[in-house]
Amino acid sequence: MSRSPGTDHVVLLVSSNGAGMGHLTRLLAYGRRLPEGLRPHVLSLSQAVPVVGGYGVPWEYLPSKDATGMDSGEWRWLFAERMREAVQRLRPAVLVFDGTHPYAGLDAALASSPGTRAVWSRRAMWKPGRNTHQLAKASWFDAVLEPGDLAADADRGATVGTDAHRVGPVTLVDPAECSDRASARRALGLPADGPLALVSLGAGNINDTADEVGAAVRALSSRGVGVCVTQAGIAEQAAGRDDVHLVRHFPISEHLAAFDVAVAAAGYNSFHEHLRLGLPTLFVPNDATSLDDQVARAEHAAARGWALSARTLADGQVDAAVDALLERGPALAEAARAADPGNGAAAAAELLASLAGTGARR
Q: Are residues 242 and 144 in the same domain?
């Protein structure tokens, strides 16, 4: 397919559902850095997809199997039909799928549009021995794009050593785009004065000190540190308390300067945002993930002197961990910033642009 100068061509960004917003956010990081002449368009299984509209990116929602209540066979048919229709309608120069499990039907949709180049954006750090059967699906794509991981030296998963176009760690925003402390707190509606911590551990009970979230909140509050959470359900448990605040903003990364420290899971996005943007963090990895090796990621950061890591905050371990965070966290965060290799999102966008100008799929 020829690409005439001055004509916008679509880059179709397709995200799987996942447990959070990582896939969608990573695609948006690529899309907002595409050069003139390429126009991002998002099709996502995530119910959070409307957030991309804030960046002026058109979007479509394709409900996941769980969201539809369909059985697997019915949903696979729906996915295949929606993908085929979208590819036929948009005729994208490039289609990018971000996920660790390319769905059946995507290959047929690509075959129906031979002018579309295809890229698998495939995050690494898989748990050892997991998901190996998916690697053969690389043959559906013209290129595999691997967003870098600061913990890559600790990666023992199936993607290690495979053929891929590797770029630096990808985050949606860069340090120059972030607010200063005062502006960030105003934007989030937080107190102007006093120390604040971001607690982002997923679901939890703020009133149960045997729970990870509850233990973190108790330890921080007892040391005079206000707590900010991102889930309304957790905040509602703290009704009447003036030391717990709900923050709702996308992307929260542009306002991380509002917080003095963080206690967070070690998913790809939060891990790289906190380290690249200099937020002192105690990582509490979620080991219940099906594939993402958060334990290896968090422990590597601790070994490199970039952050703290704790497998649990229960069993009386939280106080020592929070004391270490408040005392050592700022120095560790500075070390992480000094080791920052830069944002790989621009290099990823360059790859997509190069593919957009090279014609039909091989």
A: no
